[in-house]
Amino acid sequence: MSVHEIFKGAVLLSSLFIGGQALADGVQPAPVQKTIKEGVWRGVFNVSETQVPFNFEFKGKDFEHATFTLLNGTRRDDFHVKRIAPDSVFIKMNTYDAALVAKINDDGTLSGEYRSLVPGFRGNSLPFTAEHGKKYRFVEPGKDVAPAANISGKWELKFYSKEQVPNKVAILKQTGNRLTGVIMQVTGDSRELEGTVQGDEFVLSGFTGPSPKIYKGKINPDGTISGVISAGIYDNTKFDGVKDDKAELPDPYKITFLKEGYKKLDFSFPDLTGKQVSLSDDKYKGKVVIVEIVGTWCPNCTDQTVFLSPWFNKNQKRGVEAIAIGFEQKDDLEYAKYTLGKLRDKYDVKYDILFGGLADKKLVSQKLPALNKFIAFPTTIIIDRKGEVREIYTGYTGTVTGKYYKAYEKKFNALLDELIAEDATATASVTGDKNTQKSK
Q: 32 lies in which domain range?
């Protein structure tokens, strides 16, 4: 266990609902080691005064080999479980610096919190409870109300917020009362959501490790929908939706591009050993290079890493390199070594991972000033053998988006095949080139 984990565990342990009443003579009996029942569970978060249900499965009679699996439609996300007291457990959300911390109650239920583990960060702390054996998410079996309509299909969603929010596209599938779907936006997708339609009301929720979200809405008499998204504490955004099979987001290949006068990109950031790494290093000259701007706190970045890491391991010998530049929740290299190191180890990342600084879009724009703007973690920049930027893709479309993911995968492979096949002898050094910009 790392020093970071030991520190976090100690802090969490001190604030749990742990303890026992001492006997009259001050001697406590040996604590009873409580266990979590195997099977499916139903949990409920309290988010912005709204209950957000989620489902999970627990397998393993001893915690050392136990698996905690979050269930969202067809999606499965596995996490390890650690006992931190005879009646308490700690479930780290893999590469996300957050955890579920829970007490096993005498009646077998769980109660606890979802907590940020970022040192010094006063982020979300969401209480939850969970009961074993309940497989439903929103409505108990036998209590469904006949749906007023079937809202399967593609919807254009307009959002209302203090800050301008781009429209989103929802792809929904309804079978009877059961509703599943995904919300897509220029920065990425919501991952798979699961919910229900009851009369003229619908609701979807999702919890895959990052902060849980809930989408509650109403089917209006004119066939439109309206509702609210709640995510984290006091984060509520209203939306209206119109069914439109032709609804599309802005072209992700045209949102981010190089400013006029630039053809190349360069930078200098430390890797996880502290060594400065730049595109002008010999390692990258004459190679096709994939640059990913990511953050371990970002679920779409994780999904993109799940895509890129095995692809790179299979194709590196063809003359390809990749670099992930991580922007984290603390501007601290030691902290980034921990978080980005977790990402590297979890997903077998063999390419360089660098630390760019604090996860702030304005900061990314400052450190990579050749970009016209930066709006999404992740952003993928593909560079040819001459060091020239050939394509920039904003956001990421995961497997749950279906045809959008397949289109992304097809175009990605086609472009990489084309660039790899190009003449490797006509390379140019990025160092000193008038079109090159450096950032530190």
A: 3-16+28-132
